[in-house]
Prior knowledge:
Number of strands: 23
Helix content: 10-25%
Amino acid sequence: xxxxxxxxxxxxxxxxxxxxxxxxxxxxxxxxxxxxxxxxxxxxxxxxxxxxxxxxxxxxxxxxxxxxxxxxxxxxxxxxxxxxxxxxxxxxxxxxxxxxxxxxxxxxxxxxxxxxxxxxxxxxxxxxxxxxxxxxxxxxxxxxxxxxxxxxxxxxxxxxxxxxxxxxxxxxxxxxxxxxxxxxxxxxxxxxxxxxxxxxxxxxxxxxxxxxxxxxxxxxxxxxxxxxxxxxxxxxxxxxxxxxxxxxxxxxxxxxxxxxxxxxxxxxxxxxxxxxxxxxxxxxxxxxxxxxxxxxxxxxxxxxxxxxxxxxxxxxxxxxxxxxxxxxxxxxxxxxxxxxxxxxxxxxxxxxxxxxxxxxxxxxxxxxxxxxxxxxxxxxxxxxxxxxxxxxxxxxxxxxxxxxxxxxxxxxxxxxxxxxxxxxxxxxxxxxxxxxxxxxxxxxxxxxxxxxxxxxxxxxxxxxxxxxxxxxxxxxxxxxxxxxxxxxxxxxxxxxxxxxxxxxxxxxxxxxxxxxxxxxxxxx
Length: 524
């Protein structure tokens, strides 16, 4: 019979071996996924000790290493809100990176718009459309919608605010995010229909309302100026029916009764108009004289439509913009507009189409056009700078120079102390880091500073060119032995300069370590 002591000894040994094995596996797992090492380069004189770094050089490497890592693919947000609207719209700073990250599957949950009232009137209603041009279910561009306020210019209140409505006052800011229905619907539809992650989002302000019946429809002030009714009105009704339908099921629910929107099928399908080129039309006319053609109502390719908001899709929260085609009888019945078919995803994952109207005229053309007044000569507009060539947004402004005979030119002027202004069109890069040529770095304020500040003789370099002053040549001496000679950097007597190299370092164990790689930079 074995004694208890050997048994306890064997069990202790087995336990120790198990712990060591587990520890070894943990260490092995840790080695299979090492942390990504940072790498950066530094401009150093050829005659310096590359292994020794000053604190300033270490800070420079640390700052610029992140920029040189593999750049993540970012989603583009194109802001198409007109500049004359009294609002400033941008992504919320705290959520901007998450919304732009193409690898973030929850980007739509992080998406938030920051809206500031930059005007002098309170704003009671705003409606934003965020288009995803790459995704077109059923031929209609997919979008998200964001809304502030309750009383649209095109609803039953005609944009008239009530006492309980809270406005966005001048200088105030608010944040808008997607409602839960759109978040849930996007996740359902993306998984079911294999939608791609959108690479581009277009932000538009579809409506803005000051609470008094005035505001903007896209870029156009509302109400649109009206003409008088045509002198020979023809009583006619026009119905244009699109052959493109919502992805929801059909239903016979009464669209007028709000109680009918509780439960049941997904949508109320009404005939809608101007949804794409493949429209089928039905014209029903009861005319006292003759039938009017809608092509005579508006110029060019515009159509005469009545703009309104309605909830036609059962699982979509809130009213959507719509447009109905009309006969040209009285201009207060509608406006001249181009109409685009778009869609929004509802909480059940199905998409619902709507019509977005862009005003393109001041009302229908009357039977007898009013003669145009003699045009007044338009003064020559003041020149402006091209925004695409603006070096940076931190220290550059547009300056206008006036010449003889009223001539004027506009060009960007930049101010930068101790260096030159960053120029992102010429030297692309991350804001606050890029914009600088070789031999300079961005100090974080969009000023490009020379990496090498002093010449070998101790004098400062030229802050613009980063070059040392050309020394005054000494009188040529007659060599005693007829030999050559010269300055540092070569024996050809070609001038005084010091060779520089881009030296590469890698971050290991909290230290910058030489990689052994270096690239010739030049001689200064």
